[in-house]
Structures are given as C-alpha cells and as structure tokens.
Amino acid sequence: MRETELHLDTLAQTESVFALANGHIGLRGNLDEGEPFGLPGTYLNGFYELRPLPYAEAGYGNPESGQTVVNVTNGKIVRLLVEDEPFDVRYGELRSHERILDLRDGVLRRTAEWVSPTGRAVRVSSTRLVSFSQRAVAGILYEVEPLDGATPVVVQSELVTNEAGPDTQKDPRAAAALTAPLVSEGFVARDTRAVLTHYTRASGLTMSCAMGHVVDGPGGTGMRVEAFEDVARLAVSAEASPGKPLRLIKYVAYGWSSVRSPPAIRDQVGAALTEAEHRGWDKLLAEQRAYLDAFWERADVQIDGDTELQQAVRFALFHILQAGARAEGRAIPAKGLTGPGYDGHAFWDTESYVIPVLTFIAPHAAADALRWRYDTLDPARERAGQLDLRGAAFPWRTIQGEECSGYWPAGTAAFHVNADIADAVIRYRDLTGDEAFDRNVGTELLVETARLWRSLGHHDAAGRFRIDGVTGPDEYSAIADNNVYTNLMAQRNLRGAADAVERHPEVAAKLGVDAEEAAGWRDAAERIVIPYDPDLEVHQQAEGFTQHQRWDFKNTTAEQYPLLLHFPYFDLYRKQVVKQADLVFAIVKRSDAFTAEQKARNFAYYEALTVRDSSLSASIQAALAAEVGYLELAYDYLAEAALMDLDDLEHNTRDGLHIASLAGSWFGAVGGLGGVRELGGGLSFAPQLPEALDRLTFRLAFRGRRLLVEVRHGQARYTLTEGEPLEIVHHGEEATLQPGHPLSRRIPRALRREAPSQPPGRAPARRRPPR
Amino acid sequence: MRETELHLDTLAQTESVFALANGHIGLRGNLDEGEPFGLPGTYLNGFYELRPLPYAEAGYGNPESGQTVVNVTNGKIVRLLVEDEPFDVRYGELRSHERILDLRDGVLRRTAEWVSPTGRAVRVSSTRLVSFSQRAVAGILYEVEPLDGATPVVVQSELVTNEAGPDTQKDPRAAAALTAPLVSEGFVARDTRAVLTHYTRASGLTMSCAMGHVVDGPGGTGMRVEAFEDVARLAVSAEASPGKPLRLIKYVAYGWSSVRSPPAIRDQVGAALTEAEHRGWDKLLAEQRAYLDAFWERADVQIDGDTELQQAVRFALFHILQAGARAEGRAIPAKGLTGPGYDGHAFWDTESYVIPVLTFIAPHAAADALRWRYDTLDPARERAGQLDLRGAAFPWRTIQGEECSGYWPAGTAAFHVNADIADAVIRYRDLTGDEAFDRNVGTELLVETARLWRSLGHHDAAGRFRIDGVTGPDEYSAIADNNVYTNLMAQRNLRGAADAVERHPEVAAKLGVDAEEAAGWRDAAERIVIPYDPDLEVHQQAEGFTQHQRWDFKNTTAEQYPLLLHFPYFDLYRKQVVKQADLVFAIVKRSDAFTAEQKARNFAYYEALTVRDSSLSASIQAALAAEVGYLELAYDYLAEAALMDLDDLEHNTRDGLHIASLAGSWFGAVGGLGGVRELGGGLSFAPQLPEALDRLTFRLAFRGRRLLVEVRHGQARYTLTEGEPLEIVHHGEEATLQPGHPLSRRIPRALRREAPSQPPGRAPARRRPPR
C-alpha cells in the first residue's frame, strides 16, 4: 500500500490506513515528527478511562459511566532539527514523499526529501514496526542524511503523554475526547533509556512506556537524555553529511495493569525493552516477516482481474490480523487499535464479522477473542440481573465488559449480540473441532446466553415463543416484536446450548443445568415465532414491519444520507427503511431456515429498502446477492466493503478503520463469490465469478485440515493441502477431497436476470476494475 | 383546610397544599419567616431559565436545551425578632400553631404562639393573599403581639432573590434545580417601598418585584428601608405589648417580560403597587371573596356522607381555579404554580384533565389556556418541520412552546398531545358555543393538528389508515403501532378539523385548506385502524399488546412500585403492564366508539394490568368503573384522585400539587358518579351513588345555561338555574329541562356484580368515609 504524495487534508484518514498494531499495541500512522497530525493516537488494548454518561431524563438501568479508549503515551515521536529548523512538512519544501505499508514485512516505511526554509536538503527515512512476535514492543529505525554538504542535525526521540488532539466532532459516531487523562506516577531517564509511568483518575489503570535507543552517527555525535512528568527525550546531535547519515533505532515497550503496582509495571516494560534490544532490529524484522509469511500462507485471497480489489482485500486481511493477532484475552474493537472512533468499544461486530473470518484463517485469534467474552461473563451476569433477566446479558458496547451504551433502544435492547456470541462459539467449534475450548469456554457462554433468551422470551396463549420489544441489527428500527434475525439466532443459541450440555454433562452440572432446563431451551427454540407476510410472500424483518409506511426515498436527497444525521430516530424507526442487512443477514447466517425461493424474494424486497448507512451492510448483501444469482451486484458490494477505508466511503475513516467491513470483504469474496457455507459441521461451496474477474483463490482451515480453492469461470479446483480426507459439497453435489488429489468440478452456468433495485441513489458503485 | 400542628418532616408537602396562586403569581405556603422551609418557591407563570439537555449519545432532533421554572424573588418573607431572638419554630417553644387555607375567602391564615428561647411569649398572625382581582399583586397582613408584657420586636419585611434551596433528588420526577439563576439589573429602596429587578442569563427574561408597606404600631415605632442586589428590606422596630400589637400590611407586585425594558417593567410593578395601596387591604380581601363567591356558585360540588372527600374535592376545585384563573395566555403547568416539579412544564394534562373541567365551571379560563396553545403554534410548526411532518407538532412538555423532552420515546413520540388539544378545542366549542373562539382560535388549532395526523399516518395496502411507532398515554409502553387512544383521538381531530373548515371557509382559505385536503382528513379518519383481539374479545391498547408477556405481578413487591424506579423501560415497554389509563381513557373520551359490552370487557382486562404509578389514572378509572357498573370501585378511585396531595399518595407532593389529579377528582365525581358525557353538542347523565354517599350535587355551565344537578339514591333532580330550555338524556331517556321547572327522574337500580381485580397490592384503598 503505497502513498506517493502527502495531502494534509486527508492526513487523518491516512493515519488510520497506515496504522500498525498487533492486537495489544496500536500506533496510528502519524508522522514521525508528531506534527502536523490529523488525530494523534497510540492505544493499548483494554486501557480506558471512565467518563460520565449524562441523560436529559434519568431512567433505571441506564449506565452511569462509559469506558473510553485513551490516547496513551506516544512513543513513536522522533523530531528532527536541521540547522535549528524543525522538520515540518508545512514549511520549507517537501521535494518527495513516500509511505509504504508493507503487508509482507509488516512495517510502515517512509522516505522524504525535504529542503528546510534555510535551504538545507535532507533525506529522512524511517521504518516503523509493531511486533507480532514480541507483543509489548514497537520499534523505529530512523535515518537522516543531508543531501548537499555537512549539516548540523538534532534528532529528538521522545515519549509524550497527554498530547493535545483536535476538538471532537458533533457527529455521534465520532468518539468523545478526553483531555489529559493520564496522571504521572513517575519518570526516569538514564543513558539512552527513559520510562514514563502514568495512571488514570477514574478507571484506576496504570501504564508504563519505556524507550531505549541504539545510535549510529558520524564522529562527534552527542547525546542527552531527560525525563519529566509527561515527556521524556533523547536528543542526539551530529554533523551529518551525504553518505554519513545519522541513524537511530528506537525500541518502545508498553505495559499496563489494573492490578499490578507501578514499580512492577515499570520493571515489566524495562524487561521487554531489554529483550528487544537483545534480539536487535534485524531479528525483530525477520520475525515479523516470518509471522506474516505464515499468515499469508493460511489466509491469502487472490483475485485476478481487479488489482485494486486484490490489494484492498489483502489490506483488509492485514488489518484484521493487526486487530486480533495478539489481543490475547482482550476485545477486538470496532476500529481495532487504529483510532478513537466509537470510544474504542467492541460491539457485535467482533463475533458477527471478525471472528468468523479469523476462525477460518487464524483460529487461535478467534479463540482468544471469545475468551475475552468469557472473561466478561461476570459483568454480563450482573447486567442480566439488573434487567430482571436470567443468564448473561452481554453489553452492546464496551471495552472491559460493562454496558457503555447511553441510548438503550439501540443499545441494551439489541440483545442479538448475545446470540452472535453464541453463534461464534458454535461456529468456532464446528470449524476447528476444538473440544477443550468447547468444554472450558464455549459451553458456559452458550448456557448463560440461552438462559438469557429463555427469560427474555415467553410463550403466548397459542404456545408460540415470542421475543418482544428488542432491536435487531438494523439500527433504523428498534424495540420491535419478533425480529427474525434475533429469533433465528436465539433459536440457534438455545439449540446450541442444549447440544453443549449434552456433550459436557459435567459442565452442565457445575452450572446447575438439569434436563428440564435444557428441554425448555429446545422447546422454546422449536416454537419460536418467525413473522411472515403471506400477502407479500416475504418475511417481516420484525412483526408488523411490512405494514409500515415505506420511507419517502424519492424525496430524500443525496445530502440527507446518512439518514440518522438528518432525520429523528422516531421517524426512521416507524417506517420501512433499513440501515443495514438485518433480514438479509438472518438468511446469510441461518441459510438452513429459508428456501431458495424465500431467499430470492426476501432479498429483492429488502434490497429496495436498504440504504447502507452502515459499513456493516455491503459485505452481507454481497454474500446473499451471490447466492440468489446476482453476481455482478455481489461484486459491487464486495468492492464497496473492501474499499470502505481506502476510499473513505463513510467519511469517517479518520476516526479509525471499519474492521468489520474489512473482515466482510473477505466474507464477500469467500462467502459470496466462493459461496462457502458452514452449518452443522460440514463445508459447502457454490463458487461463481463475475465477468470481470479471471480467477479467485482462497484458503481455509477446517478441523485440522487446510484447503486451497481456485475458482475460474466454469470451473473450481479444490486442493487439500494438509490433513485427512474431507467430504465437501460443490453446488449441491457431494464430493470427497483426498490429500494429494486436487478435485476439479464444473460450475453450473449462472442464472442471468435483472438484479433488484436499491433506493434511488443508494445503489453501490458499479464496479469497473481498473486494469 | 386547617392544620393544627406543625410537622417539620412534612413541611414541603404542606407548602404545596397551602400554596396560593392566581394563574400568574404562585407562592408556596412557606412560613412567613422563610425558615425552616421544605422547598422555598415563588413563581411567575411563563418565567423560566434555559438549561442544557445532555445526551450520552446524540441524536438528530433531540432538544438541546430545556426550559425550567425559576424560583423568583421571594416577596412573602416577613422575619421577626423578639428581643433579638429570631422567630424560628425550631427554637424556643411553639405553644400553638394553626394554618387555614380559606377556600371561600381565598387567603391563607396563620396564627402561632411562640415563646422565645429567652422566655418572651408572642402571638404571631398573618393573612396571605394572591389577588384574583388584581393579577400582579399579592399581599400579607402580619401582626405580632407580645403576650406577657412590653417586648421589643423587630419585623423585617423582605424581598429575597436567588434563595438557596435543598439539593435536588435523583428521582427523575423531581425537578432539576437551578442555582442563582437571576442577575441583578437594579435595586431601589425609598420610604416604605423597595424594588428589585433581575434578568435571566440564557432565556433573556427580565422580572421586577416591588413591595410597599403600611405600618401600624405602637408609639415610637421606627423604620429603615434598604436594598441590595439580591435583597431588599424594610425593618420596623417597636416596643409592642399585650393589646398593642405591631401590624404590617405588605403589598407585593410582580411583573416580567421578554420584550419590555427593565425600566418599563419596574414602572409597571410600581404602578401595580400604587393601585394595590390605593384599593387597600380590606378592598382586596372583599374582591377576593366576591371572586370566589361567584366561582363556588358556578363550580361547587357537594358530597354528603363523606366529609373528607367533600373537603378534598373543594380543595381540588380551589387549586384548579388557582392554576388557571388569571393565566391569560400562559400555560397551566402540571403542578400549577405550586412547586418546581416537572421543571414547571405543561403537558397533555392541561387539555385532557384541567380544561375539560374549566370548560364546565370557568369557561373563560379554558379559553385562555387554549389561546396559550394557539400562541405557540409557531414553534409547534417548526417542530413538525424538524420531524419531517406537516402542520403543528406540539411539545410533550414545555413552558414557552418549544419541546423540552429529553427522552423522545416517552416525549416527542407521544403525539397524542396534539389530539388532546384538538379534543379540548372541540369540547370547548361544543359546551360553550363560543363561535368567535371557534373561528379565531379553534379552527387553526384543529387544522394544523389534523395536518400533523395526516402526515404522521399512512394507508396500508388494504387502504387502512395506520399511525405507527407512537406512544400513547400509558408511559409503560412506547413506540407502538396503532395505539387505540391515539388513533381514536386522531380520528376525532381529523373529523373536527374537517367540520371546522366547513363552518369557516374564510379561515380555511387563509390556511390554504381546500376540499381535497379536508376530504383526505375524513377519509383517513374513516379508515383508521383500531386493533382488536378477537380471541380475547378485547381491544388491544396498541397492535400486538395482548400478545406480550404479562408483567410478573406476583413476584413484584410493594417496594418495587413505582416500577419505573426499579425496572428499566426496556422491560416495562415489552410487557403487559399499564402505568395509567390508556385504553380506558380512550373509552372515556370516545364513549361513542365502544359498545357497552366492549367497555365492560375492556375495563376488566385492563384493570388487571393497571398499576396506577401515575397520578393521572385513578380519576379516569373512576369514570369508567362507574359507567360499567362498579360504583364502589369508582368511589374508591374518586377518593384516591381527590386525596392525591392531601394524603401525599405518590410521595412527591413536596414538588407541587398534582393539578390533573385534582381536576380528575371533579371528573370522577361528575363524569363518574354523575355519569356526565358530552359528545356532539348534547349532555347526557347517568348518575348513581355508592352506598356510603347520601347526596351529590354539582353545577355545570352549558351553552349560556347553568344547570344544578342533585343526585340521591334512586333519584336525580335537574334544575336549569339560568338560560334557555335544554334537551338532556338521563340514563338513556331524553328529557327537556325548562327554566323554573326542576325535573326529577328515577335512577335505575345499579347492577350488583363483583368488580374486576387489580394487580396484587395495587387495588385502591377501600373507601370507608370517616363520618
């Protein structure tokens, strides 16, 4: 991913795009010298401050404080003075600029040629890395070389805490800012090292950041190190000249804890620093490359015929990895660790978009993310109790596990997050066969969420199981009865829990589940209400939905999107207008619950109502469009999902990447064009290519096996690259894959028919691949 | 209304009960000496400050600031020093205490005998009045007389601005406090007069308060007057003795404006003061008495057999008069001018509870209150535009006309307020025949609200007119489709508007209403959806309601009421539990839309679900209970409504009286036991008495006539005390009332059957009248 010119007006977007992270540490792609910035950002997964959640009118059960991601000590700053002039691209002349996010090496490279206001030309280059192999460590190689004669230069490598950032926006999607959230606990500087330790006032977390350096400069290079409460600095001064650059390797280590003492955390980061210095820069680089080589081997998706899309999907895979690789018991937030959007919260995105992908390409990271949910069972059980429900009620949005939603109709009422978690658990087990996880982690998650559903729903006089007054995925509807998505996912959850306690009676006993309780889950699942409109012959997103007034799309102008910024929720909720795949997502996730005819009719009906004001929508629409035979439309949606951030389609990439949309681009390619479905422990494929593409290949892990699938027009080839023989289904036909015997199968000719239309102006951009 | 002992723990409640007001000025019944207080309060109708309305998550169309009633300059303070000891009931010995709210004289009288800590006994007496005849004026007669020998006394008559009050509660129903909202604009003191002028920071309102005095003391009485920014003081010192009291008459005048200059307002209050002094105390008292004599002549309700209820209903009538008598273009807030509850806002209470009563007993005040709505048409039209609707959307809660609700599901979504206004307009015209009002005020209100409904609803595929996603009266449900109350009231609104433009084609032309538009209103009204459950044979409060889970009343403890303080709205909304009459109110207001059988079945069904966590419920239940034959239950509910504040049944009378419940007690007696219904321009009666009562009489104004109705067991007597002959209906039989010929009619024997039950623990107290 290469940038060849610097545009200050899109700086914040590029900072998100060029962000480096390993799931634990996240560094936005800010310029080394700190300024100008769009939005400075350095994050530690799980490190947050509390802020009060205010309400104009109080209500029982409203969360009183919210968790907000903190911009922690910035360890990536390396400032440069050229003959006393600060290197700042806004002054002097920037002769050339290049940034490369290297998806194979896992580093961000930058080179710039700059002429200072006093006329001294220098070449600056840096390589930045957030280590996958050493989780607590980031590193920077920084080099400055004068281009025309010896020049005095000073390089200041810094740690800066409580950076000033820009004012927050009024847009509800932009994160609330926190001013100076960190309080100094101590600072030390010695030799080439410095450490700053801070704590948060309200959340009571302590963090420490340490830096160490290796300096390689011309003779006479001098150094000075100092530290204060909120800044530490190593200043290196040298007379550099062409061919004799000043070169600095900076290692930065981070650590934080809610439990351990400041000295313990300080020592921990010191040790990490020592280890990084001991390995050395080249080894860190080599380990990074090796980690990524292994990743691409498992995960790469090749798309021939559309190089832009090819790049976007790889970019997406890289960022999914960065979001989840080493989270290890922490959440995967909606923005990963790339920006402060949504306050750094994790949503249902994790389980519904990211984990399903990780389960296929990086199962250990999927398991880690689900373990984070497991670790938050206690606050979820407390929340359920507060809501007068049984089991666990997982939060709509959170960092640490407590509900942080300040608007319950689109927050707490969106109970489907619980079924989404259960679905990810069931899916993970089905795809990996990880029985230890199933026993130690999965079953309890399934049981506690099943208990929630059983208490949330009730049987009506006719014995049907209803779930009333909840909010489904579509955020332009709320508090409705019997949302199909919610009910089908709850059904899966209830059955999954009943199956799990049958597999693990000892866990069931520990959790107090008896045969009656499990039978109650199965009965409720069996009798769950799925609203259907017999006149229109489509499912109702929720009871009554198809009787509501259709949104007046004709008189809605392009400027009035996204609708939530121009119309009150009152108006959106009561009309037929869909922000994002809801019933369509139900069909994709519960493919077994709909006939082919129903899928097609439903898709057409809801397609005409769906405005895609959410980045979560396109990838799901891609998947169902492909399944019901609209390949070109699927291709358009796939491209939209993949280019969400590279093209800044929602105008808020500045606040961080849309990790779920990026994950969705994998799903759009593999689940959509590849037609991959997994239900009940088997894999089926229904690959098809849109005209523009020549070839699609993808890789999957499945129960200890690895598969390579190559799709061309008219033909698919399945290769078992690792593991035991496997039964698969290709376009409805069963086949057996044998090791060492790739299997080629014809692809039936696709139905050619007119795709259904979207609301005026809301069709996805027609994909015309730049060749 | 007499209080014979002072209880400091219920001081705030008694301050509300003993409040004096005339619709323009409101004085809580604070002790003359200012302290101790429960909640000090002095209000000017319409005088407010703005406060920000915060949201944890922003949303388009949420009001950003709210209007809050201001505790203005306190003109009722008269402090006393007895031999340098401040008269304070918390010290020394209070030998006797009496307060009398005199409902005939319209004054609050107080007498106390107090022995100071130094052993000097004095008798203090005061008479306080807020003038009905001179709207801007209040007055106090204050007298202190030593009981055992000459005693030096100092009386300080004060104006105090920005009084400190108690901290606000966390209870969402208690009002938000404003600290020191008034900024000094000027102060003057001369002779026995002083004036303080202030303005509000954000709302930009200016107010002025002036006091003048007549002092009558023993020889050697001295005086000193002074003023500062927030206090003005006349200090009178005298050597009083038994038989030679010190006596002070204090006149207080108030004025405020959003437009006029501070000098103009100061002069205005000065002039009011001069006029009051010119009339003199005795004349003010006499005018007050005359005003009330006339009121009781038109309004009195006599209940023989239950003296407590008799007193409570008269107390209620007095406070309704106080809330509305001289509001003259201002709102009638939910608490009147008796306390800061609900931020001083007016709700649908005004049109649904208070105006219907005023229309029968003080029609000019009803017209005034509706004129206030008319004056707020502009902000209501703006709000409709903001919500993408046509016509006018009146606010759920307001002082000045702008929406001040910070929680839209129970605020803006409660669109029925618009139909309630229309209903009050139609009712006012039907009962008074006031054609000028109909033409100049009523028609535009009907047209703009009809336009709102037409744009809020839509026709479904079957041509039925639906109103989806709105909130009815029951605040334990929200955002539902086709709420019966809302739809029936909207139907009345639409038809009323169509009728009005037929009567006033010139107004229709001015408002741009053509025949097509009016026909559209009639069509929509004709096809409006009224959900009905054919299995249960009851109407559904809203579509789907009867399929929801019933609230688990059995496991809800007495301490968990009111439910809104112990359960989240999420839970309340999705279950069958009713806070207050909703479908039952629909039946009472649209008696024509239900058969007798439906009324009885519906009443029984909803009675079992209604918890009466709102003070707005009992009176409506009383009315329908009586109609469907549960006289004793009606009596219980009537007593609950009437005793709401005297018995502090909701534990928040401290924040002000429940004016709607008080008005409801009239309706419970007249509409319930009297069985009065007015629809389509005629009056019908179906009087019946519960066993405990011997007689009920009430008075009604109707189209220039005045009626007196006397009900005894087995017989009713109708007297036309003024006006032309009138056709009435008595228990279904038509009759003609002639002047000078009272008509007696037998009352059919009431059906005796078991009343339906309420949720456990939520039955009204069984009324056992203290004889």
Describe the structure.
Two copies of one chain form a homodimer. Chain A has 771 residues and is an alpha+beta fold. In chain A, 31% of the residues lie in helices and 25% in strands. The first copy, chain A, has 18 helices and 34 strands. In chain A, the strands form nine sheets. In chain A, strands 1-9-10-11-12-19-16-15-14 form a nine-stranded antiparallel beta sheet. In chain A, strand 29 (695-702) and strand 30 form a beta hairpin. The first copy, chain A, starts with a strand and ends in a 25-residue tail after the last strand. The model of chain A is unreliable at 169-177 (pLDDT under 50). Chains A and B meet through helix 13 of A and helix 13 of B.
Beta-strand content bin of chain A: 15-25%
Oligomer kind? homodimer
* Order of strands in the sheet with most strands of chain A: 1-9-10-11-12-19-16-15-14
Structure annotation, total helices of chain A: 18
Shape of chain A: globular
Q: Determine the most extensive contact between two protein chains.
A: A-B, 53 and 53 residues
Termini separation of chain A (Å)?
A: 17 Å
Class per helix and strand makeup of chain A: alpha+beta
Q: Regions of chain A with pLDDT < 50 over 5+ consecutive residues?
A: 169-177
Percent helix of chain A: 25-40%
